[in-house]
Amino acid sequence: MNKYQAIRAAATTLSCMLRKAKPIFLLLAFLLLFPLATRADSVILNTGSVTVQVPPGQTVISLSNSGTFSLTYFNSEYLGPLVTSFGFQSITQGFGSVTFQGQTVQFFTGSLSFSSSLLTGQITGFQTLQDAFNNNPLFTVTFTGDGFLQSSSTSRTFTVTTPEPATLLLLGSGLAAASIRARRRRKSPQA
Q1: Dihedral angle sign, alpha carbons of residues 137, 139, 142, 147
Q2: What are the tens digits of pLDDT across the range 121-152?
Q3: Residue environment code for 2-11, b if the CB has 16+ CB neighbours within 10 A, otherwise e
Q4: 3 with 64, same domain?
Q5: Which of 100, 110, 114 is CA-nearest to residue 161?
Q6: Measuring CA to CA, which residue among 146, 139, 142 is closest to residue 122?
Q7: In the prediction, which pLDDT does 62 show?
Q8: Is residue 74 within 8 Å of residue 60, measured between CB atoms?
Q9: DSSP string across 130-185
Q10: Does residue 187 lie within any of the structural domains?
Q11: What is the mean pLDDT of the chain?
Q12: Residue 75 and residue 17 in one domain
């Protein structure tokens, strides 16, 4: 066997091995190039507020859902303008913590926006700073909350509210009274 025959035999053997292992290599390449998307859990907020203020420039976030989720964040380096939609993070600016299902982290990135009656946002928490740089999240949460917006020339504050039980009782009794009255009108003889 000369030199060329040896090279040809090696190439044939390698080609055969690659054909058999091709599906495995393609699967590994796909998983490395396209990591699985992180599923975000949803939370409905029941208390808290978001304040954006200039000057002095600062952002304060304090939101929670009893027992499941809480977010506190403060950034005194916010330069403005007064907005109702912004991103925030504790890695290079501001500080705070996020707790979700008993896991509390100090490193997170997120965004939120609010209108006159609704706040929505998303936050991704990381166990370590290295996990944040490697984009290896511990959890991702989307959150929403109903409430109201207070605006002035130097600040915007959105406050999350929940209906009180007394309000719901009053609404329910009003609906019951209206339905009883409508039933009586249908049963009474018409003149």
Answers
A1: negative
A2: 899 999 998 998 898 999 999 888 888 888 88
A3: eeeeeeeeee
A4: no
A5: 114
A6: 142
A7: 87
A8: yes
A9: HHHHTT--SEEEEEEEEEEEEE-SSEEEEEE----HHHHHHHHHHHHHHHHHHHHH
A10: no
A11: 77
A12: no
